[in-house]
Structure formats: C-alpha cells, structure tokens
Specification:
Keywords: Ligase. The protein has 12 helices and 16 strands. It is of the alpha+beta class. The termini are far apart.
C-alpha cells in the first residue's frame, strides 16, 4: 500500500491496544469548509498505514468549495495521533483530526486545519500562545414537530414570555439530553461550566472552558458531531443554523480570544491586573491593539465568521416583532456592551467577538481572527474609544456587511485575507460564496409576485 510517509512500527502497538479495548474502526477525520467532519473509516489494524498517509480523497466539490472535478488531484489525510479519541457513544470507533496534504509534500491549500496551524505558528514566532473559548448556541427539536414557522413545542413548560432565556424549568425539561451531552463532553476533552436555556423557544447553550486554539477547534468539531449523535438517541435533532425562523432568536457562537506569553503558563497578556475588571486601564495595550486589528478587518472577517446567506438574517438590529436583537451589527467595542461586535467582559481575560454564528468553520474563523488581532498588535492599531451606549442606534459607526455578497467583496479587498488564506483558497471560496448568494437572490417567490405582479 503506497503511503505519503514511512510506516512507523510503533503504531502497530497503538492499533493492538485499541483493538484489545474493543475498538474496531478508526476515522482520520478532516473538515469541509462548513466545519463538518468528513472521512472514511478503516479497520483498526490499518492504523499504521493510516498514520503514514494512505487515505486519499478528492475533496474540492465534496468539500463544499470549488467545483467537483473527476480528474482533480487527490489529497491525503495525515492524522494527528494526539487527538485520538474513542467515541463515547460508540466505542467501536476511534476518531482523529487530520491535516490534508498534497502529493507535492505540502499542506493542501483548502485544508482548514492547516490554515489555522499556520497562524498559530505565526503567533508563536511573535512570542504568544493563543487560546480560544466558544459559546455555541443551538436549537433542540423533534423533527416531526417542525412547521413552516416553528420548531413546535419541545418542552412541557412551553414558551416563556418575553423569552425563555435562563429559565430553569425549561432547562430541566430536557435535562436527560443535556446531562448526556455534558457527560460525553468530558470523555472527548471538553469541560462544561454552564448550560441553560437561551432566548429562542427550544434554544440552548453549553459553555465550556478555553483551550489552546488548535485543540479547541479539534474538540469543537468533535463536539458538533457528538451533539447530533446524542440527540438522535433521544429521538431529537439539533441545528446550529444561524437563523432557522424569522420569528426566533438567531444562534451565535461567540469567540473568546486569549493571548498568553509563550512558555509563561496561563497568565494572560491581555490584562494588566487581576481576574476582574476595575476600570478601562485594566486592559493592556496589547489587548487594545488586538481589538484595533479586529475592528480594522471586521468587514472581511465576516465572510468567514458568518459564512452563509442565512447568517445575515441574524445580524439585524431588530427581530420581526420589533424587539432589540442581541446580535451585533456595528463595528465597535465596549467594556460590557453586547450591542457591539466586540465586548471586553468583566469576568475573564479574553476578547469576546460576538458576531460569529454557529455555522462558522472554527479553524477558518480562528485563523482569520487571530491574524487580524496580531496585525493590530504588530502595527499598534488604535481601536478608538469604547462604546457604552446602544451601538446599533449610532449612525456614525460603520456597520458590518448586510449580506454575504457585501462580506465577500470586503474579503477580496482586504490584503490580510490573501495573506492568511492564499490564492487558491481565495479563488475557490469567493466563487463558491458568490454562487450561494446568487442562488438565493435570483429565485422569484410567491410572496414577491403577490406584492408586485398586479401593482406594477
């Protein structure tokens, strides 16, 4: 069997130990542009071949980026053995995160994990270790209950007005599902610190402690796979769709970005003092420059952190009932201001970026956010004064893109995009996203005809 690298005999011992523990298959998983796991699974005795790189794929069109081409160059999955996890919900399978490599002996240009690793290495070259925490929101529902405008009533408690956010009884109604998710998270390397009902009916959030950025991206990828599988066991379904219904709250995935001095333990360079904010000066100059970089590249960042046409139906100032949307639309930051794109929270030494949604590919979003923040530090970009009032009502503040098309145009025009992602990714990603926008924009619906056909 041809492999990209020489087979390591030690991996035969790994395979034997796993087989003795009841593992029958191993999956060297890579992710598509949507952050969804992709791979074939192999009998566990093929682990040594797999580690050397023998699993080959034609990933472009299948990967959700570029067009399918039956004669395209194959790429090879190279697994990271440090990520190997026996799946708690099905112990016959072991899972690993993989990088995609070309036969030229270099990372595949469309490999999200390799794109993130490049930025992580750049941060290290500047003396920083970067961390990431994510707050994913999702809807939980019974597939048979879905209607044209609702997920139906999942919980016995029903809809709590004006919102079920933080409602304890609503959370307890689905405690069997949530308990199994949290228990399973421990087995895949994630530690929850909070779980509860969110603002939409049937919407929930599970928060977990931060990790190094690459490890967090790997774990969140497995988390998303796990949550879907656990939901199915309970006869339920989960969706991370940004805006599933116009009358419901959107699902965000706030990115909490941390920065530590390399080799200096857990102490953050973003805070001057202790663990709680006592004033604006508590934040370091590096934190402010990092924010400055994020704000400078905000419009381009949105093409990656909010990658769907549907994403921009969440980024609105108000919901359909006229109430204020908590999703940010303005390029601003504030000390505890949730109407801004960026918040400097009072309870942790991390910069919270609030506009990403739960459909974002964590590898790609993490890479671009990190690069933008480091650009701010390297060039000492001043973020200006923090916002303390409602940002969405301030017409003097620049706005995030209103559509995916706007975001892609900003993405193409930003030099940092080209530096982070390279020519091949830029070409295929922008073409794919333009197609998505056009496919959504071009169809003429019944409501549109009813409104205009007779009138004009």
């Amino acid at each position: 069997m041809d492999t990209l690298r020489e087979i390591n005999p030690a991996h035969s011992e790994n395979a034997k130990q796993l087989a003795d523990d009841g593992v029958r298959y191993v999956t060297a998983s890579w992710v598509d542009v949507f952050g969804r796991s992709r791979a074939k699974s192999h009998p566990i005795e093929r682990l040594p071949d797999l580690m050397a790189g023998f699993a080959r794929y034609t990933p472009r069109g299948i990967n959700g980026i570029g067009r399918m081409d039956p004669v395209e160059e194959e790429v090879t999955a190279l697994p990271d053995l440090d990520t190997l996890t026996v799946l708690p919900w099905d112990k016959r399978f072991a899972w690993m995160a993989s990088d995609m490599w070309s036969d030229k002996g270099e990372p595949f240009s469309l490999c999200p994990r390799s794109i993130l690793k490049k930025q992580v290495e750049r941060a290290a070259s500047l003396g920083y270790r970067r961390t990431l925490g994510i707050e994913p929101e999702f809807y939980l529902y019974r597939p048979e209950d879905v209607t044209a405008d609702s997920f139906g009533e999942l919980t016995v408690t029903g809809g709590i007005q004006p919102s079920p956010a933080y409602d304890v009884e609503t959370m307890y109604d689905v405690s069997d599902f949530l308990d199994e998710v949290v228990s399973t998270m421990k087995d895949i390397g994630l530690e929850a610190f909070a779980l509860g009902a969110e603002g939409g009916v049937g919407q929930f959030e599970i928060d977990f402690y931060y990790k190094d950025m690459l490890e967090m991206a790997d774990r969140v990828t497995l988390f998303r796979l796990m949550v879907h599988q656990v939901a199915k066991k309970h006869g339920l379904a989960v969706s991370f769709m940004p805006k599933p219904f116009a009358n419901l709250w959107g699902s965000g995935a706030h990115f909490n970005l941390g920065l530590c001095t390399l080799g200096a333990g857990e102490e953050s360079v973003l805070r001057i003092g202790g663990a709680s904010v006592q004033g604006e000066d508590e934040w370091s100059k590096e934190a402010k420059y990092f924010v400055g970089g994020l704000l400078k590249h905000a419009r381009a960042l949105t093409a990656i952190t909010n990658p769907l046409v549907n994403s921009y139906k969440r980024l609105t100032p108000r919901l359909v009932d006229g109430s204020v949307s908590w999703a940010p639309i303005k390029i601003a930051y504030g000390p505890n201001n949730r109407s801004c794109m960026i918040r400097l929270p009072e309870n942790r030494p991390a910069i919270e970026v609030r506009n990403p949604d739960a459909s974002a590919n964590v590898y790609l979003a993490g890479a671009f956010l990190l690069a933008a923040g480091l650009d701010g530090i390297s060039n000492e970009i001043d973020p200006g004064q923090p916002m303390t009032e409602l940002a969405s009502d301030n017409e003097d503040i620049a706005r995030l893109p209103r559509t995916l098309l706007e975001a892609i145009e900003a993405f193409e025009q930003d030099e940092l995009s080209h530096e982070v992602f390279g020519a091949d990714f830029m070409k295929d990603y922008t073409a794919t996203k333009r197609d998505e926008w056009e496919q959504d924009h071009l169809p003429v619906g019944e409501k549109e005809r009813a409104q205009h056909l007779v009138y004009y």
